[in-house]
C-alpha cells in the first residue's frame, strides 16, 4: 500500500523495509552525524525533523534531532522526495544551486558520500529504491492529507 511521503504510515513502512534489508546493507564508509529538516510539509506539522547517524559504523536514520550534529540539511518537501524517493539528481542539483537545500556545518561530510560502484551493491540499491518507490504515493496534489 502506498502512503504520502513522510507520513507516519510511510515512515512505518520504510522502517519495515530497512529492517528487512539490515543484514544486506553495507556499513557506511564515512562517519557522519547530520540533522535533516524537511520544511513545507503538505500535511501535519509544517516541518519534520530527522537525523542520520553513522558514527557507530552502521546507518541509523530516525525522526528527531541529534545534539551537536556535524551538519544540518534543511530542504523543502518536494526536494526531500526527489532525494530520498525518486533520486532525481537533476532536480536535486537544481534545488541545491537554487538555494532550496541549505547546509550548515561541515559540508565536507556530504561531499565524501558516494553512490555504490560494486555491481552487487548497485543492484541492492536499485532494489531498495524500487521498494521505497512502491510504498510512496504518487502525489499529484501537494495538499494530500495523511488520511489517504
Topology:
Elements: H1 8-21, E1 33-39, E2 47-53, E3 60-63, E4 71-76, H2 77-86, H3 89-97, E5 101-105, H4 108-111, H5 119-135
Parallel strand pairs: 1-4
Antiparallel strand pairs: 1-2, 2-3, 4-5
Helix pairs in contact: 1-5
Describe the fold and architecture.
The protein is α+β, with helices and mostly antiparallel strands. It has one domain: Nonspecific Lipid-transfer Protein, Chain A, CATH 3.30.1050. 36% of the residues lie in helices and 20% in strands. The protein has a 5-stranded mixed sheet. Strand 2 and strand 3 form a beta hairpin. The longest helix is centred in the C-terminal third of the chain and has 17 residues. The protein is globular. The N and C termini lie close together (10 Å). The C terminus is likely disordered.
Q: By helix and strand content, what is the structural category?
A: alpha+beta
Low-confidence stretches: 141-148
Q: What separation lies between the terminal Cα atoms?
A: 10 Å
Q: What series of H and E elements makes up the topology?
A: HEEEEHHEHH
CATH topology category name: Nonspecific Lipid-transfer Protein, Chain A
Number of strands: 5
Query: How much strand content do the residues show?
Result: 15-25%
The count of domains is 1
Going across the biggest sheet, name each strand in turn: 3-2-1-4-5
What would CATH call the class?
A: Alpha Beta
Number of helices: 5
Average of per-residue pLDDT values: 87
CATH superfamily placement: SCP2 sterol-binding domain
Shape: globular
The helix fraction, in percent, is 25-40%
Largest sheet: 5 strands, mixed
> What's the CATH architecture name?
2-Layer Sandwich
The Rg value, from CA coordinates, equals: 15 Å
Amino acid at each position: 500500500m502506498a502512503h504520502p511521503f513522510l507520513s507516519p504510515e510511510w515512515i512505518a513502512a520504510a522502517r519495515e523495509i530497512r529492517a528487512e534489508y539490515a543484514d544486506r546493507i553495507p556499513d557506511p564508509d564515512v562517519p557522519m552525524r547530520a540533522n535533516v529538516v524537511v520544511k513545507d510539509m503538505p500535511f501535519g506539522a509544517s516541518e519534520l525533523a530527522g537525523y542520520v547517524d553513522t558514527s557507530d559504523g552502521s546507518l541509523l536514520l530516525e525522526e528527531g534531532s541529534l545534539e551537536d550534529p556535524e551538519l544540518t540539511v534543511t530542504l523543502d518537501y518536494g526536494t526531500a522526495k526527489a532525494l530520498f524517493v525518486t533520486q532525481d539528481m537533476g532536480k536535486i542539483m537544481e534545488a541545491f544551486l537554487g538555494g532550496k537545500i541549505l547546509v550548515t556545518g561541515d559540508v565536507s561530510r556530504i561531499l565524501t558520500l558516494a553512490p555504490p560502484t560494486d555491481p552487487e551493491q548497485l543492484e541492492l540499491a536499485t532494489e531498495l529504491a524500487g521498494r521505497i518507490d512502491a510504498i510512496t504515493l504518487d502525489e499529484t496534489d501537494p495538499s494530500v492529507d495523511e488520511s489517504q
